[in-house]
Design brief:
This protein is an all-beta fold. The protein has one domain: Neuraminidase (6 Propeller). It is built from no helices and 25 strands. The chain has a 5-stranded mixed beta sheet, with no helix packed on it. It has a 4-stranded antiparallel beta sheet with strand order 2-25-24-23, with no helix packed on it. A 4-stranded antiparallel beta sheet has the order 3-4-5-6, with no helix packed on it. The termini are far apart.
């Protein structure tokens, strides 16, 4: 007996324990650019059904009209790396940014047209945020490794004047989202390969899932049934978990099995529709950077802060 191995077709194999999950392959919805590297991130929808997303290396945040697919740059700073956009109920954009050699990380707050810019939480490498119903928000400080868990979750008060640590000692916390009733917080730890399930007001948080492989879980979001969608960076797929953290399905990027479209970073279900949209990029090939589309288990969460 001999082993067989093909570096091309085994580029990012699906782990044996996940091969039996319900699986669908995403379709290409909108080509953003064929230039590379172009790391897309941070999908969010507003109450008018516009999609927002970022181009991290370009320092840009975009708005995409879902009817016409016209894309408009709404904010630009070449000295920052924007990785998510979240909407305040008053319409302002809260853009999470990683730092560069020229500027430290921060949250940039602007009007929908990019005007009246102000800065929050300067000095943190902020990957994602989630609002609570009071208008305060939690953000991930994207630093730390398994050798030095220096990252954490921080809370900014509704008046945006006070910042305090909510959960310390994490390994590059990346994505963050709430269950629809805000009783459960979900967090991904990028460098530890873990999905955390944190009951609010309880000391009994847990590791709901350990991911396989070197590249870790990226951003996450929930649908109206409280299923959790987690993008797996450099694996070209999104895993879906039920409210207890058990895997129930996965969405595969087209041509991932031969090494394309692997930079899967952010999944978001469109509010009121069973449509999942995913940012991805083909840094290893020539297929470009796309917004992908796939079926979702349930409709998008219309109870999120920006829609109330």
């Amino acid at each position: 007996m001999t082993f067989t191995y093909n570096m091309r077709t085994d580029y990012r194999p699906i782990p044996p324990g996940e091969q039996g999950l319900q699986s669908v392959t995403a379709e290409k919805f909108h080509l953003v650019t064929r230039e590379k590297p172009k790391h897309l991130e941070g999908i969010c929808f507003d109450k008018y059904d516009n999609m927002y997303f970022t181009s991290t290396y370009d320092g840009k945040a975009y708005r995409l009209d879902m009817m016409t697919k016209n894309v408009t740059c709404v904010w630009y700073d070449p000295d920052l790396k924007p990785v998510s956009v979240k909407l305040h109920r008053d319409g302002r954009l809260f853009i999470s940014c990683l730092g560069t050699g020229k500027k430290s990380g921060r949250i940039v707050v602007v009007n929908p047209d990019g005007s009246e810019e102000c800065v929050l939480a300067e000095g943190y490498d902020i990957d994602d945020i989630v609002f609570d119903r009071e208008g305060g928000f939690y953000f991930t400080h994207f630093v730390g490794t398994v050798y030095n868990p220096a990252g954490g979750i921080y809370y900014v008060s509704p008046d945006l004047k006070k910042t305090e640590c909510f959960l310390p000692n994490l390994c590059a916390p990346n994505g963050i989202c709430f269950s629809t009733d805000e009783k459960i917080m979900w967090v991904t730890e990028f460098t530890a390969g873990r999905l955390l399930r944190i009951p609010m007001g309880s000391p009994y948080g847990s590791v709901a899932y350990h991911f396989t492989g070197h590249y870790g879980p990226d951003s996450c979001s929930v649908d109206a049934d409280d299923n959790v969608y987690v993008a797996l960076f450099e694996q070209g797929r999104v895993m879906v978990f039920n409210p207890d953290g058990c895997p129930i399905g996965q969405i595969l990027m087209p041509n991932r099995e031969i090494g394309h479209n692997l930079c899967t970073s952010h999944p978001m279900v469109r509010p009121g529709k069973k449509e999942l949209y995913i940012t991805t990029a083909d840094d290893n090939g020539d297929e470009g950077s796309w917004i992908m589309k796939a079926p979702a288990f349930a409709e998008g969460n219309k109870k999120a802060f920006q829609f109330t």
